[in-house]
Input
Amino acid sequence: MKTKLHEIVMSMDFRGIRYDFNTVENQYMLKFFDPLYVKRAINIVELLGLHKKKKMRIFDIGSGFAYFPYLCRELGHDVVISDTQEPLYDAVTKYLGFEKISLTVRAFEKMNMPGRFDCVTALKAAFHQKDDGDWGSVEWDFFYSDLREHLNPRAIVYITGSNSMDPYHRSGDKQHLFNGGHWKIK
Output
């Protein structure tokens, strides 16, 4: 039996965009059209239980191809996305009907997020990277303190990044979960 998430994914058709961007300089980016990335978005929706929740206000930092926000919106959630300007990302997010907002996450700078949210995600985030290495615990503490100001009670926060993302790194990705006032590093 097919789920609602699988039905949504089957309706996605990126052939025109993929053709427009099929150049040597875009080969690295074209890998994101692989169904593996859509499957990953489905897994995160299910992990966070968003397919079972009533309408939530969700903010996705660094949306990339916006598969995850798209699935959330199709499930009835109100979704706001942000990412850097990148022509292929811009084409895909526009095709999916999103208008990205500008949000730059920097160490020790307050984020200008548009309101409060029930769920904040950053999947494969890179904002924590700096010229002399990745953020340390002081930068992460500031980030989480600022982020709390943008969360509704009982909010969910899910952040993953590269394999050297944060001071809690041992090997592989770390997942930062916030639920009702307590951070949990998985």
